[in-house]
Amino acid sequence: MEQRKLFKGKRTRTPGGETIVRLSGVRKRFDPQTAALDGVDLEVRAGEFFSLLGPSGCGKTTLLRILAGFEEPDEGRVEIAGGGMQGVPPYRRPVNLVFQNYALFPHMNVFDNIAFGLRMKRLPGDEVHARVGWALELVDIAGLALRRPHELSGGQKQRVALARALVNEPEVLLLDEPLGALDYKLRKQLQVELMNLQEELGLTFIYVTHDQEEALVMSDRIAVMREGRVEQLGLPEALYERPASRFVAQFLGTSNLIPGTALSEREVETPLGTLRVAETLQSGRRYTLSIRPEKVRLSRNASRGPNRTWARVDDIIYTGAENQYLLDAGGFELVAYTLNSDIQEPGYEEFDYDERIAVHLPEENLVVIHE
Amino acid sequence: MNKRTRWTRLLPTLGPGTVWLLVFTLVPTLLIFYTSFLQRDPHGWLSGPLTLENYRRFFGIGPDGIDPLYLNILGRSLLLGFVTTLAAALIGYPFAFFIAASPRKNLLLLLVVLPFWTNFLIRVYAWIVIFQRKGVLNALLGQLGLDPVLLYPSWTAVYVGTIYTYLPFLILPLYASVEKIDWTLLEAAHDLGAGKLRGFWHAVFPQTLPGLIAGILLVFIPAVGTFVISDLLGAGKAILVGNVIQQQFGASRDWAFGSAAAFVLMAVVLAGLWLYARWAGERGMEELV
């Protein structure tokens, strides 16, 4: 039954829809000391797969609950599909939520669970039947209509929860870590299915997750959240390639963060020596340079040019697809990944413990963080 | 593993319970069933031969038709059982939520259980003190300039006393259900378009059903068989099936008729439970039975 599907659509990553959700200056406090949301401004476009990404306690779930109507913001404005949401209860909002723990009604079978929203709208019986049938087909669980939730596996429950929300044709589908409770393989598979579904239906998804890989794979745009604020918002590639803060650089993937002081417009004095960057700097100011481990070039033989140094191999982690090297560059720790592609060309060499190797930090790969 | 070893393994765990049920439930029930077909001899002892006379007498079947004396009494008991259960549910249901939501739930639970620390008879006598002609209630009414009411002895007093006595038996199991309610289901219902009332009905009420049903059974069954409360607060004039049975085993010394009355009562209650189980089964609520 669980046939593996590949992502069918072509992800353009440039959705041009109109704004469907607009948050401005949203603040929420549950206790006087800490703000759950500390002034959030966001715009989500129609038809977009939008992710809220951040560690636990960053406010992403609170934001989702404000959109669903379970919490009212203390300050700020929420608009969904052109309408202000102040004082609008959850049952009158054009959104549906897929709950983290599914929240299926245990005393109803799958069919009745999915039919619930339609029956609340008092649709006629044959229409309910037709639409629930469509939803069951959509998520590939037509054979489970008469099962009770306790007779379903985690993945099947997730499909029911999804169908129960989708069948109402919401303007925006809110998803609260919907794959969090599933094992790795099933999660990977459902990620693809969710993307297909979103593409097929042209629906707007707002997807809360703490899994950076999930967010990178699935989203059109990502808002990285931290301590109740949006730290950075943009395309997955932009967030990964051009992190704007140390937090984003470290939360999305792994980064080497190198502190330093600008010597001139293009040069930074760092523990690794003087490094050239591709950006104009203010002389004398402190910066952090960030470089992804896979963009660090390693070789046995020294090459000429700037941004080069020597390092000793401290540790090697073999992950299958790549070798991860832990390097000691004159007391400064660097991480570098090389692909295990067996290609005999520079950059694909393999190194040994305690070997002294040449490290190149290409200036176009050094991201300047203004912190 | 053969049958023999399985039995010897099960014996230590199932044995005591089985023996208990046999000795204290099955054997006495069979004895009462047998007794209900015997007769009272002139000295008040039991004697043969076996007869249906006791049942005929209870149902009042005579040559001139049916004399509903005992059937009326049975009906009164069932009515008391229904009204008590209904009242206890109406009072207890919101109260269980109130306890669960309260920051002082332990104190409130203690207050619910507190009456059990006092002797049951004393608590019933306390209602006499409240209801009697020059009692607490009339003193209060007098203070307010109102006419006194005569509630002792009366059916009202019997009903109040019964509801008061059995209310905790409804609250406690219901509270256990309310404590465990998964409130995200209510959020899910709201999210899917259910307003406050429908959200409660579809997402919260079903979760309280196991506790509510347990409570209803714990109240209805003893309330139908009540005799002490009706005896005291009705001053001997409020006659229920329980009183009839008690009289036969006591003053009237007609154990055979008393056994027949007890058996009819038991049959009615069991029939009610069976009907309920069937109803619940049809609705796919097997797990609630």
Please describe what this structure looks like:
The complex is a heterodimer of chains A (371) and B (289). With 371 residues, chain A is an alpha+beta fold. Chain A is built from eight helices and 20 strands. In chain A, the strands form four sheets. Chain A has a six-stranded mixed sheet, sandwiched between helices. Chain A is elongated, with a radius of gyration of 24 Å. The model of chain A has no long low-confidence stretch (mean pLDDT 89). Chain B has 289 residues and is an all-alpha fold. In chain B, a hairpin with a 2-residue loop joins strand 3 and strand 4. The A-B interface holds A 68-70, 89-91, 95-97, 99, 101, 103-107, 116-117, 120-121, 164-165, 168 and B 182, 184-185, 187-195, 198-199, 202-203, 206-207, 285.
Q: What's the name of the CATH homologous superfamily of chain B? A: MetI-like
CATH architecture label name of chain B: Orthogonal Bundle
| Spatial gap, N to C terminus of chain B | 34 Å
Please tally the β strands of chain A and state the result.
20
What is the H/E string of chain A? EEEHEEEHHHEHEHEEHHEEEEEEEEEE
**Parts with pLDDT < 50 across at least 5 consecutive residues of chain A:** none
Major sheet of chain A: 6 strands, mixed
Structural class of chain B: mainly alpha
Most residues in contact: chain pair: A-B, 23 and 19 residues
List the helices and strands and how they pair.
The complex is a heterodimer of chains A (371) and B (289).
Chain A: E1 19-29, E2 35-45, E3 49-53, H1 60-68, E4 75-80, E5 83-84, E6 95-98, H2 110-120, H3 125-138, H4 154-166, E7 172-176, H5 184-201, E8 204-209, H6 212-218, E9 221-226, E10 229-234, H7 236-241, H8 246-251, E11 256-262, E12 267-270, E13 273-276, E14 286-291, E15 297-299, E16 308-318, E17 322-329, E18 332-339, E19 356-360, E20 367-369
Parallel strand pairs in A: 3-8, 3-9, 6-7, 7-8
Antiparallel strand pairs in A: 1-2, 1-4, 4-5, 9-10, 11-12, 11-14, 12-13, 14-20, 15-19, 16-17, 16-19, 17-18
Chain B: H1 3-35, E1 39-40, E2 46-47, H2 53-59, E3 61-62, E4 65-66, H3 69-101, H4 105-113, H5 120-131, H6 136-143, H7 155-179, H8 184-191, H9 196-224, H10 228-233, H11 241-249, H12 255-282
Antiparallel strand pairs in B: 1-2, 3-4
Helix pairs in contact in B: 1-12, 2-12, 3-7, 3-9, 7-9, 8-9, 11-12
